[in-house]
Q: What sequence folds into this?
C-alpha cells in the first residue's frame, strides 16, 4: 500500500524545509481523543503506551512510520521531512517515516544517538487481511546494548550491556555482549574501580536500578538524572530500571534457573551478593526486551578486578592503547601497531587483552610459549594465518542463530567456517604450546553440523528467508514434490506464450506477471482486434492491452498456492537447521574463543618476527630491565632504522636473582642497584615523552603475553600502571589544567604501590614556577621514599636532579642533544646524568622571538639560577 509519503523515497531534505506549523497537527499521543482515532492509529497509540520511552517504528505498507512526538523526534534527529496525516475524525497528526527496506540503517542512527527503537511490523500480508486491519506486532526492541544485527555492530569491538548495583561504597557490575554471548560479573568495594571498569568496557548501555518515577527511560550520553549515582561517568547511556529484578530475592533464582544450577557456587558468585544482583537484573532486562529473539548467553563467569593489571582510563588514554590522544583515531594507537589478526573474533580478543592485561605469570607465560612456538615454526604460522583468514565471525553468527535472526547466508558462512576447523586441528597436531593444543580436538558434533548445513543449504542462498530458494534438492521428498509442481506450472505458463502466439497469430504476444493482477497476457493495442473471444480485458496501457483468461487464472491460483507452500516448507526446514545451530551454541563459542586466542597469538608472533621483538622474561619481583627498548608505534611510523633504541633499568633487584643480562651491557647506573625513580631531563622535543610511554607500553605488552620491542627485557609484574602526561583544561567539569593535573597526581599518590609503574611527564607546570617546582619535588620525594613505585619523572625543572644526591634510589637521566652554533641536533639518546639546560630560549630564538627579548631572557635566567639551589636548603631542613 502506497501512502502519502510514498513520494518521499529520499526523506532527507537537501535544503532545510520550512518548519511545519505544529498548530495544524497533534504531536502528543496522550492528547488525542482515542474514540476519534481510526483503527490503525488506535492500535498505534496503544502500542506506544507500552513503550513510552522508545521511538516506535510502525510498518505501514512500504514504510515504517512514526506519529506524534516520535515523528517530531525522528525528523529532528535524522533530518527527515516532518509532515502530517489524517488519523480518522481526530484530525491530522505529526508523521515522519523511512522506507521499510532501509529501517536498519535509520534504526542504527537512532540507537547510536542513544534511543531505544521498537519495531512494530506487519505480520501478515495486506491481502490476507482482506479489508480488516493488517495484523501488526512488535518484532524487535533495539537498545544500544542489545544489538544483534550485523550492520549495527562494529566487528572489531564488543558491544557491551552493563548493569550496576551500588550499596554505600560497595558495588556489583555485570556485563554481557549478547552478540557473542560473553557474560561476566564482579563485585568490589572501591567505587573508583567501578568507574575504571566502566571506562574499560565502554558499555553501550548501562542498567541502573532506581526508584525514579520514569522507569524504563533511557538517558542519552550527557543527560543527567537525580536518580543516577554520582560515581557513574556521564558519557554512557543509562537505562533506569525498577529495583525489583535487582533484588537478591529475584536475581538469585533467575540466575539459578537460567543456568540450570542448584547453587551459584559453580558460577563463582555465591558469596558476592552485589555481583549476583547486577547479573540477575541484567538477565531480566534481556528477558523483557528480547522476547521475540531470546539471546543465548554463555555460562556466567565471575572475575575480580584486581586479578588483572589495573590501567586507569587516564593511562589508557595517555598510552594511546586503542586510540590516539590528539584526534582519537585508531591509526597510530597501540592496537593499530599490534593488530595482525585475521579474524573478527581475534581482533576483538586482542582489544580485550590490551584493555585487561594479566598479572598472573602462568597465564602470561602460556601466551609467550605459544608465540615462541609460532615464531620458531614459520610454516605452521603461515598455514594457520592462511586458514584463519577463511573463518568468519563464528561468535556472532552463532549469536544470530541463537536469537533467530540469522539468515541462510549466515548459516552457510558458519558452515564454511566450521568445516575449516578439522584442517586447523590437523595443522596443530604436533604443537606443544597450550593455545595451539586447545585447537587439536574439534568436537565431532561440529563437523557433523557443518556437513549437514552444507548438505541442506544451497551454496549462495538469498538474504530473504521466506521467499524460497534456500534448500537443495533431495533434502526433503515433500519439498521436491512441491518444487516439481511449481516447476511444471511455470512450464505451463512458458508454453502458454508459445501456444497463444500460434493460436492468435500475434507474434508480439507476451505473458507477464505483476503483483496487482497476477499473470496476464499482453498484446499491443494495434492487434487488439485479433484477440480471441475468451480473453477478458483487465487493463489498458498507452501501447498495450492486458488480458486474462479463466484458464490462466485457475492455473495462477494453483501456482501461487503451491509456491507459498513451497516457501513455507523451505522456511520450516531452514528454521529447524537454525535451531540445531543454536543448540550447539556453547560448543561453537568455546571453540571460537580458542580460535580467537590462536589468531591473536599468531598475529603477535608474526609481528614479533617482522619487528624483531624479544621474549620478555617475566618475574614476580620489582625489576624492570629493558635493553634497547623501542616505542612500538613510533618505531613503525618512522623509516626502518631511524628509531633510536634506549634502555631502562628500574626497581631494586631482589637478592639471588641472576644477572644473565650483564653481558648485554645494561645501562650503567649510579648505584649498584637499579633506581626506583628516574628524573629524566632534556630539551623540548628531544624524546622524553616518547621514552616514558615506551616503557609503559613495553610493560603492558609483556603483561598481555606479547613479545616486546627490545633487545632484552626482564620485567617484574606490575599491579598498576599510572601515567600523568600534560593535561588540557577539562572544560566539561570546569576544571583548570592545573586542577586536572593535581587531581591526577593525587590519584597516583593515593593508589600507587611499590609494585606499580608510574610515568610522570611534567608536574607543576600549570602554576607559578616555585609552586610548581616545590610540588614536583615533594611528589618525587614521596614516591621515592614512601611508595617506592618504579617511576620515571620527566621534567624541565633541572633542580630535581639534586634529589639523586640525597636519595639513594633516585637516578638522573637525560635525553641528549648535540649543540651546533646555530642549531640543536636531537640524538634521542637517554644517558645517565641530568641535563643542565632546556634550550627553551634557543627554541624561542629559532621561532623568531626578537633578539632583545632573547637577550633579556638569558639575563633573567642567570639570576634565577643563582637562587634556585634548593637542594642544599632542604638538606639543611632535615
Ligand atoms: N628514540 C627516538 N628515536 C627517534 N625519534 C624519536 C625518539 N624519541 C622521540 N623521537 C621523535 O621526537 C619527537 C619528539 O619527542 P617527544 O614528544 O617525546 O619529546 P619531548 O622531549 O617529550 O618534548 P617536550 O618536552 O616538548 O614535551 C617525537 O615526535 C618522535 O618522532
A:
Amino acid at each position: 500500500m502506497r501512502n502519502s509519503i510514498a513520494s518521499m523515497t529520499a526523506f532527507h531534505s537537501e535544503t532545510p524545509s520550512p518548519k511545519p506549523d505544529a498548530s495544524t497537527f497533534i504531536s502528543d499521543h496522550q492528547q488525542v481523543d482515542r474514540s476519534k482515532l481510526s483503527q490503525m492509529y488506535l492500535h498505534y497509540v496503544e502500542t506506544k503506551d507500552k513503550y513510552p520511552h522508545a521511538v516506535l517504528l510502525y510498518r505501514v505498507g512500504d514504510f515504517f512510520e512514526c506519529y506524534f512526538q516520535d515523528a517530531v523526534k525522528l525528523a529532528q534527529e535524522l533530518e527527515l521531512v516532518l509532515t502530517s496525516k489524517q488519523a480518522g475524525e481526530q484530525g491530522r497528526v505529526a508523521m515522519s517515516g523511512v522506507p521499510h527496506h532501509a529501517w536498519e540503517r535509520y534504526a542504527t542512527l537512532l540507537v547510536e544517538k542513544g534511543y531505544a527503537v521498537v519495531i512494530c511490523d506487519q505480520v501478515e500480508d495486506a491481502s490476507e487481511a482482506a479489508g480488516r486491519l493488517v495484523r501488526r506486532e512488535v518484532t524487535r526492541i533495539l537498545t544500544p546494548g542489545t544489538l544483534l544485527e550485523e550492520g549495527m555492530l562494529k566487528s572489531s569491538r564488543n558491544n557491551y550491556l552493563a548493569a550496576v548495583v551500588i550499596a554505600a561504597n560497595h558495588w556489583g557490575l555485570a556485563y554481557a555482549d549478547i552478540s557473542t554471548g560473553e557474560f561476566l560479573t564482579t563485585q568490589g568495594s572501591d567505587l573508583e574501580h567501578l568507574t575504571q571498569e566502566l571506562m574499560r568496557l565502554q558499555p553501550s548501555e548501562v542498567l541502573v536500578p532506581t526508584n525514579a518515577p520514569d522507569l524504563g527511560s533511557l538517558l542519552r550520553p550527557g543527560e543527567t538524572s537525580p536518580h543516577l549515582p554520582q560515581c557513574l561517568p556521564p558519557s554512557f547511556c543509562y537505562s533506569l530500571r525498577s529495583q525489583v529484578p535487582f533484588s537478591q530475592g529475584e536475581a538469585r533464582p533467575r540466575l539459578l534457573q537460567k543456568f540450570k544450577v542448584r547453587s551459584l557456587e559453580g558460577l563463582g558468585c555465591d558469596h558476592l551478593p552485589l555481583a549476583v544482583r547486577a547479573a540477575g537484573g541484567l538477565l531480566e532486562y534481556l528477558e523483557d526486551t528480547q522476547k521475540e529473539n531470546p539471546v543465548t548467553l554463555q555460562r556466567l563467569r565471575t572475575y575480580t578486578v584486581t586479578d588483572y593489571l589495573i590501567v586507569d582510563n587516564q593511562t589508557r588514554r595517555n598510552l594511546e592503547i586503542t586510540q590516539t590522544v590528539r584526534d582519537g583515531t585508531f591509526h597510530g594507537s597501540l592496537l593499530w601497531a599490534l593488530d595482525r589478526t585475521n579474524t573478527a573474533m581475534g581482533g576483538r580478543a586482542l582489544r580485550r587483552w590490551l584493555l585487561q592485561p594479566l598479572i598472573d605469570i602462568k597465564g602470561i607465560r602460556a601466551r609467550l610459549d605459544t608465540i615462541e612456538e609460532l615464531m620458531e615454526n614459520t610454516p605452521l604460522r603461515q598455514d594457520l594465518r592462511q586458514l584463519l583468514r577463511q573463518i568468519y565471525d563464528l561468535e556472532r553468527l552463532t549469536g544470530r542463530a541463537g536469537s533467530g535472526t540469522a539468515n541462510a547466508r549466515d548459516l552457510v558462512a558458519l558452515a564454511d567456517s566450521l568445516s575449516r576447523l578439522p584442517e586447523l586441528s590437523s595443522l596443530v597436531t604436533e604443537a606443544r604450546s597450550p593455545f595451539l593444543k586447545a585447537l587439536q580436538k574439534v568436537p565431532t558434533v561440529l563437523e557433523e553440523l557443518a556437513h549437514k548445513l552444507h548438505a541442506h543449504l544451497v551454496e549462495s542462498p538469498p538474504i530473504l528467508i521466506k521467499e524460497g530458494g534456500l534448500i537443495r534438492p533431495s533434502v526433503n521428498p515433500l519439498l521436491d514434490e512441491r518444487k516439481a509442481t511449481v516447476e511444471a506450472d511455470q512450464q505451463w505458463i512458458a508454453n502458454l506464450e508459445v501456444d497463444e502466439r500460434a493460436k492468435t497469430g500475434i507474434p508480439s504476444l507476451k505473458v507477464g506477471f505483476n503483483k496487482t493482477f497476477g499473470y496476464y497476457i499482453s498484446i499491443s493495442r494495434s492487434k487488439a482486434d485479433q484477440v480471441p473471444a475468451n480473453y477478458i480485458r483487465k487493463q489498458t496501457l498507452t501501447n498495450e492491452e492486458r488480458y486474462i483468461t479463466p484458464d490462466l487464472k485457475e492455473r495462477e491460483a494453483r501456482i501461487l498456492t503451491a509456491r507459498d507452500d513451497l516457501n513455507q516448507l523451505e522456511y520450516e526446514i531452514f528454521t529447524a537447521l537454525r535451531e540445531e545451530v543454536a543448540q550447539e551454541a556453547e560448543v561453537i563459542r568455546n571453540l571460537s574463543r580458542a580460535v580467537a586466542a590462536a589468531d591473536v597469538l599468531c598475529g603477535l608472533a608474526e609481528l614479533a618476527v617482522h619487528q624483531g621483538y624479544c621474549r620478555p622474561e617475566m618475574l614476580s619481583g620489582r625489576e624492570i630491565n629493558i635493553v634497547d627498548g623501542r616505542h612500538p608505534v613510533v618505531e613503525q611510523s618512522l623509516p626502518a632504522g631511524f628509531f633510536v633504541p634506549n634502555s631502562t633499568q628500574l626497581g631494586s633487584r631482589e637478592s639471588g636473582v641472576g644477572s644473565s643480562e650483564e653481558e648485554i651491557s645494561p645501562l650503567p647506573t649510579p648505584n649498584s642497584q637499579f633506581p626506583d625513580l628516574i628524573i629524566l631531563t632534556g630539551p623540548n622535543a628531544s624524546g622524553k615523552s616518547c621514552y616514558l610511554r615506551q616503557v609503559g607500553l613495553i610493560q603492558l605488552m609483556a603483561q598481555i603475553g606479547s613479545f616486546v620491542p627490545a633487545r632484552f627485557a626482564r620485567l617484574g609484574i606490575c599491579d598498576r600502571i599510572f601515567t600523568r602526561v600534560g593535561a588540557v583544561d577539562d572544560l566539561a567539569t570546569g576544571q583548570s589544567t592545573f586542577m586536572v593535573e593535581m587531581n591526577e597526581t593525587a590519584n597516583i599518590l593515593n593508589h600507587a604501590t611499590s609494585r606499580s609503574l608510574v610515568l610522570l611527564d611534567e608536574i607543576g607546570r600549570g602554576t607559578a614556577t616555585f609552586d610548581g617546582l616545590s610540588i614536583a619535588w615533594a611528589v618525587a620525594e614521596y614516591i621515592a621514599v614512601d611508595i617506592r613505585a618504579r617511576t620515571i619523572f620527566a621534567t624541565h625543572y633541572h633542580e630535581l636532579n639534586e634529589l639523586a644526591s640525597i636519595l639513594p634510589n633516585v637516578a638522573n637521566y637525560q635525553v641528549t642533544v648535540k649543540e651546533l652554533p646555530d642549531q640543536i641536533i636531537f640524538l634521542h639518546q637517554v644517558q645517565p646524568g641530568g641535563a643542565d639546560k632546556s634550550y627553551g630560549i634557543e627554541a624561542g630564538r629559532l621561532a623568531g622571538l626578537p633578539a632583545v627579548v632573547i637577550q633579556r631572557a638569558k639575563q633573567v635566567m642567570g639570576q634565577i639560577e643563582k637562587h634556585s639551589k634548593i637542594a642544599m636548603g632542604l638538606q639543611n631542613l632535615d
